[in-house]
Amino acid sequence: MEGEASVRFCAAFFDRDQTLLYMDPSLRAERNARIEAWSGKPFTLTPAETMELFFASRPPQGVKSVEEERFSLRLYWKSLLLRAGVSEGLEERGEELHQMTWLKGLKLFPETLEVLQQLRGRGMRMGVISDTSPSLPLTLEAAGIGAYFDCAVCSDLVGVMKPAPQMYQTALDALGVAAGESLYVDDCGAEAEGARRLGFTAFHIDRSRPGDSRWRIQSLRAMVAYLQDIG
User: Fold this and answer.
1) What's the rounded Cα separation, in Å, for the pair 70 and 95?
2) Nearest 5°: phi and psi at 138?
């Protein structure tokens, strides 16, 4: 505890999906209902199959702008409709799904806003480090939390994915802080561990079960409790 108490934390970094926010299940259900109405049969594609279509619609090096991202997403929706058995109006229906889902259905976890406000109140700078595309800042704005973050680092622009050290280092460099004075939280244990290896104080958040250690937590509130504990 004495060593921990001597650390002056000045920054906190977060993963996005399943850490700060999640996709509204009702939007996914509405999307599937439309596809079923167009195809005349149940939507049976598995998450693995949809991800395969998603990555097949993207350039191998990842998308490098919001415009490229939206172009790739339109390809994805058309490919998904074809795989789901829709044969007519692919262009129009794909665009309908794109407009229905683009920056939509982003739900904050109950404690997200409270914790961001508390950390900001402590004078901490904050960033997001996410395996995603250039629309990352737009999604944070759409979810109503964009103003809390001083940087948003996405894997497509960095060129690697977590737990590659470059992802975390890019965020540290953006804020001009060191890993040893930074917190990090991620719903993926391997990605939290990747940050820990660089010197972050890193938490693995798993809301499905009670936290069983200081570093595996069930709520973002545990980050604030940790700061209070160490003074």
Assistant:
1) 10
2) -65, -35
**Which residues of the chain are modeled with pLDDT < 50?**
1-3
pLDDT at 8: 86
| Partners of residue 106 on adjacent β-strands | 23
In angstroms, the CA 182 to CA 107 distance is 26
- What is the pLDDT, as a whole number, of residue 3? 47
Beta bridge partners of 129: 153
Would you say 162 and 170 are in contact if contact means Cβ atoms under 8 Å apart?
no
Distance CA 46, CA 11 (A): 38
Alpha-carbon gap, residue 192 to 182, rounded angstroms: 13
Q: Specify whether the CB–CB gap between 207 and 218 falls below 8 A.
A: yes
Distance of CA 148 to the CA centre of its chain: 15
Q: What is the pLDDT of residue 4?
A: 54
The reported pLDDT for the residue numbered 2 is 41
Q: Are the beta carbons of 119 and 131 closer than 8 angstroms?
A: no
